[in-house]
Automatic annotation (TrEMBL):
It comes from the Bacteria. The keyword Isomerase applies. It comes from Paenibacillus sabinae T27. Residues 2-49 form the 4-oxalocrotonate tautomerase-like domain. Pfam families: Tautomerase. One of its GO terms (molecular function) is isomerase activity. Keywords: Isomerase. The keyword S-adenosyl-L-methionine does not apply. This is 4-oxalocrotonate tautomerase. InterPro entries: 4-OT-like_dom, Tautomerase/MIF_sf.
Length: 68
């Protein structure tokens, strides 16, 4: 069972996450020739105030495409 862990800064919408899941599952399924139902995906959202580059902290969520 392939498992994908995606680490990204917080701020993505549910719709964005659903699209990410759909694309990753579709493409991985195609490449490895395995049904999508066997692929699992989890998100680890990192708070912007934790380990974020200075430009992300300055811009904040939605400020430059990285925060949502």
């Amino acid at each position: 069972m392939p498992h994908i862990t995606i680490k990204m800064y917080e701020g993505r919408t549910r719709e964005q996450k659903e699209e990410i899941v759909a694309v990753f599952k579709r493409e991985l399924s195609r490449v490895i020739e395995r049904e999508e139902r066997f692929i699992t995906i989890e998100f680890h959202e990192i708070p912007l105030d934790e380990n974020a580059p200075a430009n992300l902290l300055k811009a904040g969520p939605g400020g430059n495409g990285y925060g949502g």
